[in-house]
Amino acid sequence: MAKILSSHFRQPPLLTLLALLLLAPSTLIKAQQSELRISTEEEIKADFVSVPCKNEDRLRATRTLFEKMGAAASDISIDKHKDVDNLMIRIQGTIKETVIVGAHYDQTGGGCGAVDNWTGIIAIAHLFRSLKTYPIKRSVLFVAFGKEEAGLVGSRAMAEAITIEQLPQYCEMINIDSLGLGAPQVADNMSNKKLSAFTAKLATDMGMPFGQAAIAGADSDSSSFLRRSIPSLTIHGLTEDWPKVLHSKNDQAAKVNPLSVYLGYRLALALLFRLDNLPCKEFRVLNVNLN
């Protein structure tokens, strides 16, 4: 997450085992189990055994992770914009409308960037595996953004490349940035208000602990798409202890709570299913305030 200075929010507790049972596939999503592959907390935990610490290794590691989740090498593309590379892979829907699901792969601060933001990369890779064989209406474009920490460089480049004619086809952008410390939250100052409220209601329906608050001085890749009037949302899993971890040498795999990542993944998966059945203009607004 770029340029975090200070934040004020109350983090709800993580789920108990009993509450976790309420998130079983049969209670969350009405889908044929042969078509929908829902990851487990243990599977997500296993992907943190090896976290690439060097920025020069992270794009390649992102590709490897998506291939592990079943992506064909030929389906993965690198979208180059001057000095930044975004990794992209699309699940084709039956209509032209598209939802973007993104997370940045770069890191800063001298640690391994396990929380910020390898948690996001692992979450979107598991979302890809869950959806890749399931029949959806809208296409889902998964994007691993480069150089978020340098000022949203990758996401700005992608958002600005979308033409006026193409904009109506982009229904929403769901950004995952820095899970791993606590229960899922929405960063209000980086998110569309109507989409945030919709996500909060969904979390309530799921019996999931959830919070909403602005993170003062922070920014993330959803803002690049909000500036193009694409309804966007950042889901994170930060707690009040984040200053001890993010952008520091302490951002290591040992700091990641796999349950936090799992809950963020499950919330995003449920959100994608709900959005697939709504009009593309459901959350679109004419004026965007990023302050």
Describe this structure in words.
The protein has 291 residues and is an alpha/beta fold. An eight-stranded mixed beta sheet has the order 1-2-4-3-5-8-6-7, with helices on both faces. Strand 1 and strand 2 form a beta hairpin. Helix 5 crosses helix 9. The longest helix is centred in the middle third of the chain and has 18 residues.
Provide tags for this entry.
eight-stranded mixed β-sheet; globular; 291 residues; alpha/beta; disordered C terminus
Topology:
Elements: H1 17-21, H2 25-28, H3 41-46, H4 55-68, E1 77-81, E2 84-91, E3 98-104, H5 114-131, E4 139-145, H6 153-161, E5 170-176, E6 185-187, H7 193-206, E7 211-213, H8 222-226, E8 232-236, H9 258-275
Parallel strand pairs: 3-4, 3-5, 5-8, 6-7
Antiparallel strand pairs: 1-2, 2-4, 6-8
Helix pairs in contact: 5-9
Tell me roughly what share of residues is in helical segments: 25-40%
SSE order in H/E notation? HHHHEEEHEHEEHEHEH
Low-confidence sequence ranges: 5-9, 16-22, 24-34, 287-291
Terminal Cα span: 17 Å
| Structural class label | alpha/beta
Concise account of the structure shown:
This protein has 291 residues and is an alpha/beta fold. It is 32% helix and 15% strand.
